[in-house]
Amino acid sequence: MPQTKKIAEQLTSTCSYCGVGCGVLIQKEKNGNIFVEGDKNHPSSKGMLCSKGLNLHHTVNDKSDRLLYPQMRYNKSMPLQRVSWDDALERSAAVFKTFIEKYGPNSVAFYASGQCLTEEYYVINKLIKGFIGSNNIDTNSRLCMSSAVVGYKMSIGEDSVPICYDDIELADCFYVTGANPAWCHPIIWRRVEAHKAANPDVKIIIVDPRVTDTCAIADLHLQLNPGTDITLNHAIGRLLIEQGYIDINFIQQHAEGYEAYKAVVFEKSLEEAAHICGLNPNDIRLAAQYIGEAKGFISMWTMGLNQSAIGTNKNLSLINLNLITGQIGKPGAGPFSLTGQPNAMGGREVGGLSNLLPAHRNLNNPLHRQEVQAFWGGKEIQEKPGLTATEMFEALETGQLKAIWILCTNPLTSLPNTRQAEAALKKAKFVVVQEISNKPETLAYADVVLPAAAWAEKEGTMTNSERRITYLHKAVDAPGEALPDAEIICKFAQKMGYNSFSYNNVEEIFIEHTKLTKGTNIDIFGLNYTILKEHRSIQWPYKKHKQNGTKRLFEDKKFYTPSQKAILHAVPDTLTSEKPNPDFPFILTTGRIRDQWHTRSKTGKVNKLNQHIKQAYLEIHVQDAEQLELKEDDIAIITSARGEVRAKVKIGNTIKPGVVFLPMHWGKILGNDLNRANNITNDLLDPISKEPDFKYCAVKVAKYQKP
Ligand code: SF4
């Protein structure tokens, strides 16, 4: 803490970037500026913050890019003009009402974000599902976690991360797949690093087509061919069975589907599987041995598994490894999905996706629909799921969807096949953009722009990857006329004529949400801001007699399925992604870098964070670079069937030959769309989770020649 600063106030919060959800202390200076440090009393992070978290205050103190007042235009060729809140919301309500009357409630949609607070998610979901009468709400969480959600639901009955971070120090084997936590979930990874340093016998297995910083402490790096995760997981499953490492008592008493699972993993020999994965069979044997001999085994994964056309099956094949070894519901063990966004979990708790209802209820359950409808006192809730993230943009293109309200996300950098999404947004009849920054590309297509309060400018709650709910204090006022997102949505709902949105404060929204959880598996009934402030954070389900909630799920081995048994799924390992071919011979995979967050609207304005990696780059293997006559720092042009990207060449042997990598952060913000990776990614979806195939598509690479 700088000693010269005069601190007026110190407030607790949580970091608004990744799903680790580190505790933050906001120090407020007398001049109104803030700076941050790690909160030593927050159990998730124990005082640690990574580079992004440590620079959070810059994004609040620097108001140079902030939207300050509502703006509107009456036709797309006009410039946006400043208007009052009343005018902006009355026009938005009038247009929404007209479309709903003329074309039905499914002609409008809300596209939100895993960065919204739980209370914000709650009111948007309530508005569209309970009062407008459509299920057209989805969020950018669809792009990162939906395969994990479905994986959990199909295997353990509900979208519930079973473990807590304190399990890290109790485990002796980690299988980290499709993830680079050293860069993308750094504080979780620091805990793993410290645990390994103190206990060298702890085994770390990394599964990744690239050599990343996460590999620095690996005992074994399985550098598999992209897309072969299921084949590898099945091969390990087979070895665990053959070598007697499975927990037969657990399987017999607490799991279903073992015989079918056994049959599917025995379809391929170890040698066949190793050949498909591009691995040495002995390395797969060693991985199975490490897992089999572990007293506490944690599987850890994120986008490499989720962002795939077979993402659900990849998740299931991994969770199977925990189930056959009985490594779940006990200290130091369990499947642990690393959440990408700070409140993707909270959003799902309130049902903030097109196929969910509050408190993990399901749209396809008539009793669940009735319960929620009766509680809200609104319209009949529709059974049919609404449009998902990419489907919304397709529906704009076809004209089925007339109006879209986009808040707290920048789809024109983050959606796959972005140029098509941009063309779709251009065709939309009415676009509302609710934003903090004047940079996102969506603003060019907005009919109404609503300025929102940022992190530290509003209060509410978020839930991190270990089901931990943390209260975020408001530390400073939002600039200009910007308002908290929940307040904007409630004002709009009232303009639409719905009376159930006249809350006196945000806590009333939170309390309403807790009432809907009563009696469910995520029960937080009885929780309020006073308790959260007192305890700093609580893990759901919250029970009054357990003051800090529930650390670990399923210690009684009763899963949330109808039979209370976990389900082993015998999933096929057929890859459905776009295959490389003579025209597009390389496999493209995309991902995050250490110091940037999503589309850089916040991290991109922090000089320190831009120093790490200054611009988009193409990672390519030295053999491929030689063949293409590419040199370090050349500009490459990378082309797929959907478009092209330009990026500086970074040559090395950290990636497999035949595979190239682009970071996903760059778009038009502070640049142009030429290095926007999603110009070329594929919008093919997993048929169950509807998550796009960001990690695998066919491209060609050439040296860019100046015309
Ligand atoms: Fe924020 Fe994630 Fe870094 Fe923690 S690890 S400080 S939550 S970005």
From TrEMBL:
Residue ranges constituting the 4Fe-4S Mo/W bis-MGD-type domain according to the UniProt record: 8-64
Gene Ontology cellular component list: membrane
GO MF term (any one): oxidoreductase activity
Family: Belongs to the prokaryotic molybdopterin-containing oxidoreductase family. NasA/NapA/NarB subfamily.
Organism: Pedobacter puniceum
Obligatory cofactor(s): [4Fe-4S] cluster; FAD; Mo-bis(molybdopterin guanine dinucleotide)
Protein name: Molybdopterin-dependent oxidoreductase
Example GO BP: cellular respiration
Entry keywords, A to Z: 4Fe-4S, FAD, Flavoprotein, Iron, Iron-sulfur, Metal-binding, Molybdenum, Nitrate assimilation, Oxidoreductase
Full-sequence range covered: 1 to 707 of 1173
Transmembrane annotation, as ranges: none
